[in-house]
Amino acid sequence: MHGIRLYLRFVIIYLKTKIEYDHFFVFMDLVLNSIWPLVNLTMLWIMLDRFGQIDGWDFDQLMFLFNLSHMAYLVCAVIIWNPTREMQELVRSGGFDAYLIRPIHPLAHLIMRQFSHGHFFGLVVSVSILIYNVNRLQLDVTIGSVAWFLSIVIGGALIYSAYMLVCGTLSFWIVKTESVYELVVDNLRGITEFPLTIYNKTVKAILLFVVPYGFVNYVPASGMFFPESSPWPEVVRLLATPVLGAVLFGSALLFFRIGMKRYQSTGS
Amino acid sequence: MRLYRAVLLRSFQSNTAYRAETVMKFFFSLLQILIQTSIWIALYGRDNVHSSSVGDVSLREMLTYTILGICVQIVVGNDIIWRLGSKIQSGEIASDLIKPIPFARFMFAESGGQTLFRIVFEMVPIVAFGFFAYGLLFPSAADLGLFLLCLLNGIALYYLMSFIVGLFAFWYMVYWHSGSLFHVVMSLFSGSMLPLWFFPESFIRVAQFLPFQLVFYGPISVFVGKTTFLETLRLVGMQFVWIAILSFGLKWVWSKAWRKLVIQGG
């Protein structure tokens, strides 16, 4: 409770500093952070307008699949994208020192002192897409289905956060982590914008068992649209995402703690 | 000329310092090929050809288009907007301006060295991979020659466009904004993600008058053999017209821009 109140304080101060800037800059931040998914969806629409379906999935179903992974990503990006991206620079320059001497956990402080307003606006767009999508697909909105959907989004956000944190933490060992970060966080996630069945076995195995982004959107969504052909038992489809998210995020935190022990300041 | 060659070679050499980065980039491109080809194979499903606005397109032609698109990206791509932007933001541009060499040409030679490096270490392996893994189609010698001509013009066009966008940093400092906006427009209208064949008619009518499709869609269509000789001539003509317009535009923006230049301290 105390943590949440503190976080809100931090967020309000952060937003105040942003409003100091020219409003047009802030406006463009919001637009550009949410435009890419819309561009990608437009491309998808053009493709599907010509071809009708991909591997049995029609446009609305693909949009749901796309939006599910995107929403989970945005939830986690609002909170943890900036801190993990910054880690490389903080460790290299020795700026991480400042976080070690505060009366809260360094990671908590890193998270609290920023708020990715661009990603947050993206989240608003993503929720609008979801509402449109639910109407088009005529999905049942009940307490049960909403709770299930939220558990998938939160579980997915935890899975993404775990990998962001691991990639950021690598900075304690390697000087440059940018490319690894981009590969794991952005490029591999890009693969799951389409149903995993269209890829070859190696790619599928990587995205289910090594970097399990498949569990963020593909496993739940394919279970929902094609329950008869899904190879996963129902209990996996319902619970795997949140459980996996909790386990992976817990391990990532442990990894961060090990990394922090290795931290040697620059000594200046 | 000797001067530019020296700049180009030096930039090529400085790229060899980032070996891990090169391996990573090659890996990105492979991943991109894997994703895009999988999507097209799944879209085609059991059919081998699909109708479009330029007649039937076979799966093999489509795969060639995709892999070639990634190669063209390597050849024409540059990071001018980001480099120019940070130079303008930090004021470093002042030290470039006092060099006895025209600035735009200097930057062109420098990014040429980078491109040459990427061609040797990224594009050649990719073409080899594409050839063995997917059986790329190769055009006749005449078409290949025309393709290379179009590609050279495409490099010039893309460079001019990105330089102009980069110069906007004189007025609007947040250069990543203008950069991303340029990329959005580019991916929608250039045919780099999706050939214009599959776009709705009305969209094609707009896109064909813009310079963006002359960089990706135009040259690649020539390579895949989807244009008649007359259409190819028209394409090359349009490229020259746009190069003229954009060079003129660049001169104009530059003349306005350097009067805006403010350098803090020193």
UniProtKB/TrEMBL annotation, chain A:
Top-level taxonomy: Bacteria, Bacillati, Bacillota, Bacilli, Bacillales
Transmembrane regions listed in the UniProt entry: 24-47, 62-82, 115-134, 146-175, 235-256
This protein's UniProt keywords: Membrane, Transmembrane, Transmembrane helix
Name by which UniProt lists this protein: ABC transporter permease
Record flagged with keyword Transferase: no
Alphabetized PANTHER family for the sequence: INTEGRAL MEMBRANE TRANSPORT PROTEIN, SLR0610 PROTEIN-RELATED
Native species: Cohnella endophytica
Leader sequence residues: none
Automatic annotation (TrEMBL), chain B:
A Pfam family reported for this protein in Swiss-Prot or TrEMBL: ABC2_membrane_6
Keyword flag Transmembrane: yes
Entry protein name: ABC transporter permease
Keywords: Membrane, Transmembrane, Transmembrane helix
Transmembrane segments: 23-43, 115-138, 144-174, 181-200, 206-224, 236-254
Natural source organism: Cohnella endophytica
Origin organism lineage: Bacteria, Bacillati, Bacillota, Bacilli, Bacillales
